[in-house]
Write a structure and sequence with these properties.
Structural class: alpha+beta
Largest sheet: 8 strands, mixed
Strand content: 15-25%
Distance between the termini: 50 Å
Number of helices: 12
């Protein structure tokens, strides 16, 4: 029996778990996949939006601005890569200037600080590689970039350090309420709990609709992305947006916290809730639309493309509240962009709802900070030599593209929410995210996973069960 069961281990679920772990409560997070950050949260542009885009008075706007203000401290406390690089919404047509002015006024009304409309000269002084047609831009210095993988992992690890339990490969099949206790049927048996937080991303409508007569609908909205090699320099330093449309913020061009350039996403509504395949049409759209804002993008330096699904709710609004006709069931649904930057505030909001309902008491020994995994290449030469003397695994480079050592990979496997797959290692230390996309390092990482997890290398997967890399041994040495 748990006090609180959270469905979903994306940024909303894990930020909520972290905030709830401040209190005396028996908390469990269930996730149908093999790791955190395996759904909506993994295919993300990593933008810490300033908050000028969401409608005035909406919960989305409120939590965006609040989350943006919280993010620097969250990143510092949890050892998450974060940078305030600022954002520009560019205008290339005089007829669109009133829309830029409206966006500025919306941002001011939402509480975004230090917004400014820059003229052409000011824009090109800041970003000389913009399209020559750009005449002005809305500048938001509070816009930032963050690593979505490590943020998600960090929330989960800190929650686990504070007593939250995580159950992976555990899919919720049905929810029934019996005498004020929820009986949650999963592929691994029945879990009983007093309260449920529905943070299931694309599938949040499925679980809401199991318990409520007031149905909601979550539409999968696919976003295609392109990622450039980290050797590409001087394209942009700020996050560049086009003026937004009814389908979202358009194609953005942004640096990442790890030194790549990312371009995307599209906004294509689909039916398949697992439809994360890219398409030629979608990637062509990314390339063509990006040229409207930024010139000279070296598309011959693309190292990968990918797609993710945003959980678009019909009303385009965050739904964070107790379900009216199912007491103690808390929705955290419709969390699309700007969900990543809103996640610290989402966690606090959900935790406050449950603190009041369940009369939760504060812990005196809450662990506020997370150390994180060693970043070997960021150490001084003296620090590197000292670490190698203590543990020779840090002297063995496994991923040449990202310069990741065996010691870091072992840390990722042995961390509080440890990696169990190639993608799990990739999310935590970036081994396999470089130019060769794991072509060189994957076999060695598989050997390390098998050794540290004490399992047969034939059982090592890319991600989920069924994604095993090796099918058999054809030669014994």
């Amino acid at each position: 029996m748990y006090d609180i069961l959270i469905i979903g281990a994306g940024v909303s679920g894990t930020s909520t778990a972290r905030e709830l772990s401040r209190y005396k409560a028996n908390i469990c997070v269930v996730e149908k996949c093999e790791d955190v950050c395996s759904g909506t949260s993994k295919a993300n542009s990593g933008i810490a939006h300033a908050g000028f885009d969401a409608a005035n008075g909406s919960l989305m706007a409120k939590l965006n601005v609040l989350g943006n203000k919280m993010m620097p401290k969250i990143a510092e406390d949890l050892n998450v890569p974060f940078k305030l690089n600022g954002s520009l919404v560019v205008c290339a047509n005089e007829d669109d200037m009133p829309n830029l002015q409206k966006l500025y006024e919306r941002g001011i009304a939402n509480g975004v600080e230090n917004l400014k409309i820059l003229n052409r000269e000011e824009v090109f002084e800041k970003e000389p590689n913009l399209n020559d047609n750009v005449i002005a831009a809305l500048y938001a210095p509070t816009g930032g970039i963050v690593c979505p993988f490590i943020l998600n992992v960090a929330y989960a690890e800190n929650a686990a350090d504070n007593g939250a339990e995580f159950r992976f490969n555990t899919e919720v099949l049905d929810i029934k309420k019996v005498n004020d206790i929820f009986e949650v049927s999963t592929n691994n048996g029945i879990i009983k709990t007093k309260y449920i937080v529905n943070a299931a991303g694309i599938y949040a409508d499925k679980f809401h609709n199991m318990v409520s007569a007031n149905k909601i609908r979550i539409n999968p909205r696919r976003g295609d992305y392109i990622l450039l090699d980290s050797e590409v320099k001087n394209v942009v330093s700020s996050t560049i947006f086009a003026l937004p449309s009814k389908f979202g913020k358009g194609i953005l061009v942004t640096p990442t916290v790890h030194g790549n350039i990312m371009i995307g996403p599209t906004a294509i509504d689909i039916e398949d809730k697992e439809g994360v395949n890219t398409t030629a049409e979608g990637l062509s759209q990314v390339i063509e639309k990006s040229k409207l804002t930024v010139k000279n993008i070296p598309y011959n330096k693309v190292i990968t493309s990918f797609a993710g699904l945003r959980p678009h709710e019909d009303g385009h609004e965050f739904i964070i509240k107790e379900v009216e006709d199912c007491e103690n069931f808390i929705d955290c649904a419709g969390i699309e962009s700007p969900g990543l930057v809103s996640s610290p505030a989402i966690g606090v909001m959900v935790a406050n709802i449950l603190k009041e309902k369940a009369k939760l008491e504060n812990k005196k020994d809450f662990i506020e900070k997370r150390k994180g995994i060693t970043k070997f290449m960021s150490l001084t030469t003296e620090e590197k030599n000292k670490l190698i003397k203590e543990n020779r695994l840090y002297g063995h480079i496994i991923c040449r593209c990202e310069k990741i050592t065996e010691g870091e990979i072992v840390e990722a496997i042995k961390s509080p929410i440890g990696a169990r797959s190639l993608d799990g290692v990739k999310r935590r230390v970036r081994a396999g995210l470089g130019r060769c996309q794991g072509g060189f390092c994957s076999p060695k990482i598989m050997e390390i996973l098998a050794r540290e997890l004490k399992i047969d290398i034939l059982n090592i997967t890319k991600s989920e069960k069924g994604s095993e890399i090796l099918k058999g041994i054809n030669k014994e040495i």
